[in-house]
Give the backbone structure.
Amino acid sequence: MIRFLFFGLGCASISLAVGSVRAEQRPNILYIMSDDHAAHAIGAYGGRLAALDPTPTIDRLAREGALLTNCFCTNSICTPSRATIMTGQYSHVNGVTTLSGRIEGDRQHLAELMKNAGYETAMVGKWHLKAEPAAFDFYTVLPGQGFYFNPVFRVRGPKPWPENEFRFNTYDSKHSSDAITDISLKWLRTRKQKDKPFFLMHHFKAPHDNFENAERYDWLYAGVDVPEPDSLWNRGNHGPVGREPFGTSVGKRNERRNMGDHMFVDDRLPDESYKRKAYQRYLKKFLRCVRGVDDNVARLIDHLDESGELDNTLIVYTADQGFMLGEHDYIDKRWMYEPSLRMPFIARYPKSIPAGRKPDFIANNVDFAPTLLQAAGVDAPDFMQGRSFLSMLQGEPAPTDWPEATYYRYWMHMAHHDNPAHLGIRTRDWKLIYFYGQPLDAPGAVDKPTDPYWELYDLRSDPEEMNNLIRDASLAPQVAALKSQLDDLMAEVGDKMP
């Protein structure tokens, strides 16, 4: 069933169906989201960086709760992902396909539904949806990307949005991760409706580029060689067959924009030395920002423990998408490749989520809002396209009609990081990507079409996506089946092939 029949409907007119969970049994909900924190940069996910112990606190949440191993983004870029989480709708339905999109107050469905269900609501940190977060009882948000140090915040006040603001001005620089946590902790301690459960969306700016860590982490990982992905040096048969690869790079492959230039590496160095130095600086700065996030998650947990609310709070940790950390010599996100497509999702609530679970059903960020709403005892409205996976977090098997694939589409053709527009399908075992290479009507896309091409990866034998099999004649039946499945999935979600 397609679940977006009332796309334009404001939440104020939605009739809520509150489930069997009584008000006194409903958990507080602390939704923590970082920016660009790839799953493989979380120790609990067991990637090549786990040996560096980058996230001891987030790993604790995973040990004490559930960690999704197949959670994916539907459009791997900041504003569209956040819009999908707020609306429960794919980008082509909520209208936020690029960084230019916005979600007005009457479409901030998740916040409004939580409020209508009796929750006190707050939004703190990176918002990035342009319009005022008016559906929340309380908000203190960064304007746009915001500053890493001594950040300015937009607040509710006597003047029209976005004129009310305050800035952290201190003798010693205040880092955004610390400042955002200070604000959330103050709200938790002083909120006005303590007879109600709370719904707090706590959004870090970190570890978004340009990876400015708090000064106390300047020497973290000094003298350490961060493990490199093999594909940083050997691309194999990855990418477009017989063509130069697209996308910005760690090394000098992309002369217009590469991480060596971002990291001020001497461009007179030989190519290999340049790439190696760029990678080490890149990863260390990224991981220093990650440690700042992890330490501030610990501050939130400590407060909940001290206030006696820890075990009555559903804590979710996620990111708005994944991130390329040198795989295939890529930086940034946007791609449908695994490091960019995959989202971390960890949930702790000991009253109903057994510790240590790692369910492997396929989920994506369209499903986040229905899941959080069900935890609050609210049925998701029909216009939300996702489905709640709360019961699977709690240990139940996936329903027999649970989706077997996830749909992806990226609109911002050749913008910023030279990624062609593309779409595709990802099943448990296969990934088929169509790089259609047209800007269409996407704001910010570069009006220079690229030749279309397909990529096919067998994720069972090639999880690192080293071998594009699209020209393997023996796989023609598999390609045809995946194209048919992609057509069906696009029709189900209401999108059309360009």
User: Anything to note?
Assistant: The longest strand covers residues 28-34. The radius of gyration is 22 Å. Residues 1-21 have pLDDT under 50 and may be disordered.
